Amino acid sequence: MADCKWSDWTSLEGVSNDDVPAPKRPGVYAIRYAPGGKPKAIRRAFGPDRHGILCYGMTGAKLRGRLRDFYGAALGKKAAHAEGIRFHKLKYAENGYPLRSVEVRWQVCASEKAADKRERELLNNYAERYGEAPPLNRQVPARR
User: Fold this and answer.
1) 3-state helix, strand, coil in the chain (%, to 5)
2) Mind listing the pLDDT tens digit for each residue in 68-124?
3) Are the beta carbons of 30 and 53 closer than 8 angstroms?
4) Residue ranges per domain, the chain?
5) CB 133 within 8 A of CB 41
6) How many other CB atoms sit within 10 Å of the CB of residue 46?
7) Contact at 8 Å (CB) between 32 and 11?
8) Phi, psi of 118 (to 5 degrees)
9) The domain 10-130: what is its CATH number?
10) CA-to-CA distance for 32 and 87, rounded, in angstroms?
11) Element (H or E) spanning 84, and its range?
């Protein structure tokens, strides 16, 4: 989408504590595992995801708040973020995916509708390439 541009990859921890300001606008985001800033491949059904993508998400409100919610939920704090809760409950941090090595990037979109459409594209493209959704996403959305 022309109105959605990716930011650089940055520390999720840095976004959570405001060292790196994330926008207060609608958009999509990608969260990856990248120790030392280098993505680590994750085994998938159709071959390794060399980008280390853990999940894609979107918000129709504020990216900054949504990313903080993921981080808080991943730490086990009360926060409404399904993928963050999954990260914590499945003990990703204890099984080789420490939060300090998790990075995020985002695309600001013009509206909630544009962000929703972009997230669907990202998830469907990932599933077509790797045969399944990213590890923290539950499912691939139906195409519309």
Assistant:
1) 35, 20, 45
2) 999 999 999 987 899 999 999 999 999 999 999 999 999 999 999 999 999 999 999
3) yes
4) 10-130
5) no
6) 11
7) no
8) -65, -40
9) 3.40.1440.10
10) 12
11) helix 82-89
